[in-house]
Design a protein that fits this description.
With 216 residues, the chain is α+β, with helices and mostly antiparallel strands. It has five helices and nine strands. It is globular.
Length: 216
């Protein structure tokens, strides 16, 4: 009887130890993810407004591209922290209008060049962007788990532009198929796969934020 009791005690102690180790591991991962990221001040201005040639409906048709050092530096910081096998998009950009939005809403009402001009007049290419946070999403389904890291900005010019083109949609009788807030001012930094457009349109929430951004 005493031997059996000793075995049970050891099993209980082992389970407790495993639980504590697991808890500490999870907390350590959360703490690491919450450490501030650093971006260079120069990478937050002089972005390039671009009309794209989308390969899929959820690719951007109109976007704002940052200097390459913005996403390359953040991707390097991500890898140093997590050592995860991730991918970073070549020519990462802030989507302004998706191809499917243009086809469903604006085709026949206005041209890509007109949307480009509206984005330019809203001040998007000349603004100095203010990063709010590094954000994270995880999408789990049977047999696969996808992860996404993206930079979320405070960008009133972005909101103003989307509101302005919403007026175009309303004037053309298509207000019901265009949602100005369907896109947030974000730039994808890293993903567990290379099909980045599967995450779009991306409407960010405060709960997505995991770490603050320090401007250096």
């Amino acid at each position: 009887m005493a031997n059996r009791t000793n075995v049970l005690v050891k099993i209980v102690i082992g389970l407790v130890v495993l639980g504590v180790v697991g808890y500490l591991f999870v907390q350590s991962a959360k703490d690491t993810r919450a450490e501030p990221y650093t971006v260079p001040r120069a990478a937050l201005q002089r972005w390039t407004l671009t009309i794209e040639k989308p390969a899929s409906p959820t690719d951007p048709m109109l976007s704002l591209k940052p200097p390459a050092e913005l996403t390359s530096g953040l991707f390097r910081q991500l890898f140093e922290r997590h050592a995860e096998s991730m991918n970073s998009p070549v020519g990462a950009a802030m989507p302004l209008v998706l191809q499917e939005e243009y086809e469903r809403v604006f085709a026949g009402l206005t041209s890509p060049d007109t949307l480009f001009a509206a984005a330019k007049s809203s001040g998007l290419p000349t603004m100095v962007l203010q990063p709010r946070c590094m954000a994270y999403r995880r999408d789990s389904s049977p047999g696969v788990t996808r992860q996404l890291y993206f930079l979320l900005f405070d960008a009133p010019q972005f909101t103003r532009f989307r509101a302005e083109i919403a007026k175009l949609a309303e004037a053309g009788g298509r207000a019901d198929v265009f949602k100005a807030d369907a896109l947030s001012p974000v730039v994808i930094v890293a993903s567990s796969d290379t099909n980045y457009s599967r995450w779009l349109p991306l409407q960010a929430a405060p709960s997505d934020c995991t770490a603050p951004i320090t401007v250096g």
